Amino acid sequence: MRQRFAPSPSGFLHLGHAFSALTIWAQIRAVGGTFLLRIEDIDQTRARPAFEEAIFQDLSWLGLSWTPPVLRQSRRFFFYQEALNKLISQGLCYPCSCTRRDIAEALSAPQENVITNDLPPPYPGTCRHRSMASRQENDAIRLDMGRAIAAVGGARALGELGFDETGPRHAGRHLLQADILQQSHGDIVLARRDIGTSYHLAVVVDDAAQGISHVTRGEDMFASTFLHRLLQALLSLPTPVYHHHRLIRDDNGKRLAKRDDARALRSLRQAGARPEDIRRMLGLMDPIPPARSE
Ligand code: GLU
Predict the structure, then answer these.
(1) What residues flank ligand 1, with Cβ below 6 Å?
(2) Which helix H or strand E contains 205, and what residues bound it?
(3) 221 C-alpha vs ligand 1 centroid, how far in Å?
């Protein structure tokens, strides 16, 4: 088993991160394997070295250790570009100059995503007619979802592509469906205008590069996994087993965000919490099994 914990260094780790990291750790300790760390810092306007340093400190404080090297996404733009070029050369991409406002206006009325509230409504397709040759410097690059589905063999062939999920809410095998991909994701951005890649593209490239066998992350990422599976098929990358865990919520039932300072591990630590208190707060009562040699 090879798993990664993949935080973004744009804030301090909070209880939700601790839950992910400790869940990964427990799974690895149970069967033997490797715990890897990936710093998801493609958005250099939000990443801060101090937050990265805090990630190392907070994980060590929790009693976790990782096998080097730490993978930093900000050093890997070459590989994301390479993957993007592969998709471009298959004729699956187009440049897009729409701003958020253009998109909101084209969608005319505010709407919720039909499939999941975790995702915004799909892009209305304003720039879909454009060729890559018309790309301007400030354009984003989108995946043409219709063409992508055709490229893997169409709606029927898509139904052969799936992934295994071991998380409590969605355990079982999940197969891709054309209408869900179209209606919940649509023409997603593969390369943002400012950073030349996107979370979705980078995560599938890096899960493959790090030889990840099992991905454990929050339930809010479940819907995106269908998209990740499609990108894996288009890029001929392997598919890990997925485990999406419950989200840790605050006392009002809202999911935790980076700005919730009171739930930051360092705030809790400064208030006197010990690692075992964190585990208790998360409902992880079992003591951490001792480290095994790899
Ligand atoms: N950087 C993402 C986060 O912090 C990780 C998502 C993933 O594990 O794929 O939520």
Answers:
(1) 6-8, 40, 203, 217, 221
(2) helix 199-209
(3) 8
Average pLDDT over residues 118-125: 85
Q: Does residue 289 register a pLDDT over 60?
A: no
> Which of 2, 8, 225 has most ligand 1 atoms within 8 Å of CB, for mutation?
8
Closest ligand 1 atom number to CA of residue 17:
4
Domains of the chain: 1-75+264-294 (3.40.50.620), 77-211+219-238 (3.40.50.620)
Which residue has the CA at smallest separation from atom 5 of ligand 1?
Answer: 6
Express each pLDDT in 8-63 by its tens digit.
999 999 999 999 999 999 999 999 999 999 999 999 999 999 999 999 999 999 99
**In the predicted model, what is the mean pLDDT of residues 269-287?**
89
Instruction: Please tell me the pTM assigned to this model.
Output: 0.92
Helix (H) or strand (E) holding 149: helix 145-151
Q: How far is the CA of 290 from the centre of ligand 1 (A)?
A: 26
